[in-house]
Structures are given as structure tokens and as C-alpha cells.
Design a protein that fits this description.
heterodimer; A: mainly beta; seven-stranded mixed sheet; 11 strands; about 50% strand; globular; B: mainly beta
């Protein structure tokens, strides 16, 4: 069965650079979530989209932005990168708006800021 | 604020049973999820409770009491591959985002 695809799997950037993370949800899933997981931490919700519109917003820095495109894939854009942005970034998708159903997580993008 | 508490670490022997407790105090409740996560990998879904009671799924069972803000995950017939972090997560509204606990690291010993 198709899973959530994230790219790239690993990314190394320097401070103050920009990064773009991509997420391709499971086919026919209309909801996408982004989570950030620092070392030894639990995943923290950043932002979500339902039917290409932002549906919810969590602790996402102003330096980050995201969108969901017409084919339902999503991109997380991160600018002015800081050392503290080094983390695993997970994308998850779910069907039918997300409520009362499990989210399926991608393998994540490991971002290292040096 | 949101508060989801679970033990940091538990150790058990192969073939045994382990129960991971989770208590929560959140601004809303739309269901409680348990995920398994191996280090550096994606969380994988284990179980979901929205009504009080026990949900059984093979070697894994999960229980929910909404009035007590309490859930547990029961892992039976432990195997070495069950060594992982187990995350308790509350879905706080119908938009689906999850508020995670800090995770319980389960160590299975021979």
C-alpha cells in the first residue's frame, strides 16, 4: 500500500539559509499535518491543511510557511534557518478531514543546520 | 494548557506483559491514540479510543476512561522488536492535530 512520501530524507543547511521540505500524502487523503521532533522530544504540531486550505496552526515560527497544492502534496518552507531548527520533520496524512481517524506518518526529513 | 503524562521508561522481559499508563488534561478531547516509534523512524499507529472501554488488537490492547482522563496501552507476549518509544497522543479537536506525551521508552530484555 502507498504510504506518505517525504523528500528529501536528509538535508544539511547552514545558518540563515532556506530549506524546502516536501510531502506527498497517501492517495485520496485530503488532510496533511506537519510535525517537528527535536532530539529526545515528542513530535510538536506545526500546521495542517485540509482541501488545500490551512485548517490549524500550532507552534510554527514566523520564519516558516507551508502550503498544500492542487494535487494535495504539501511543502514546508523554512527561511533564516537557526541551529535550533535541527530536528526530524514529519508529515502525516489522513482522510476525511482528519477527525476521529488515525494519521499516517511519513519517514521524515532529518534537517541539520550547521 | 495541555498536559499529557506518561512514564519515561519501563523495562520488561521477553514474553511478559507491560502496561503503559497515560493521564491527560487537555482543552478538548476527540480521541486518544497510541503510536509506536523506533529511534529515528516514523511513529506508527497502534490503537485509537474515543469511547470508554477496552480496544483489543492482537497483542496490543488500549483502555480509555474519559471521566478520569486516563488511558493505558497493554503489550502482551513481549518480543525484542517491541523495544521502542510508545507515544500517547490526544486529538483535541475535529481538525485532527495530535498533542503528544513525551513517550515511554520500553526496553525488552531477554
Amino acid at each position: 500500500a502507498a504510504g506518505v512520501i517525504q523528500s528529501p530524507r536528509h538535508l544539511i543547511k547552514e545558518k540563515r539559509e532556506t530549506a524546502t521540505l516536501k510531502c506527498y500524502p497517501i492517495p485520496r487523503h485530503d488532510t496533511v499535518y506537519w510535525y517537528q521532533q527535536g532530539p529526545g522530544q515528542d513530535p510538536q504540531f506545526l500546521i495542517s491543511f485540509y482541501e488545500k486550505m490551512q485548517s490549524d496552526k500550532g507552534s510554527i515560527p514566523d520564519r516558516f510557511s507551508a502550503q498544500q497544492f492542487s494535487d494535495y502534496h504539501s511543502e514546508l518552507n523554512m527561511s533564516s534557518l537557526e541551529l535550533g531548527d535541527s530536528a526530524l520533520y514529519f508529515c502525516a496524512s489522513s482522510p476525511t478531514g482528519g477527525g476521529n481517524t488515525e494519521a499516517f506518518f511519513g519517514q521524515g526529513t532529518r534537517l541539520t543546520v550547521v | 494548557g495541555q498536559n499529557i503524562d506518561q512514564p519515561t521508561e519501563m523495562t520488561a522481559t521477553e514474553g511478559a506483559i507491560v502496561q503503559i499508563n497515560c493521564t491527560y488534561q487537555t482543552s478538548g478531547f476527540n480521541g486518544l491514540f497510541w503510536y509506536q516509534q523506533h529511534a529515528g523512524e516514523a511513529p506508527t499507529f497502534l490503537s485509537y479510543n474515543v469511547l470508554d472501554g477496552l480496544e483489543e488488537k492482537g497483542r496490543f490492547s488500549s483502555f480509555l476512561s474519559r471521566s478520569k482522563g486516563y488511558s493505558y496501552l497493554l503489550l502482551k507476549e513481549l518480543q525484542m522488536k517491541d523495544s521502542a518509544s510508545y507515544l500517547c497522543a490526544v486529538q483535541t479537536d475535529s481538525w485532527g492535530k495530535l498533542q503528544f506525551g513525551a513517550g515511554t521508552q520500553v526496553v525488552v530484555t531477554p
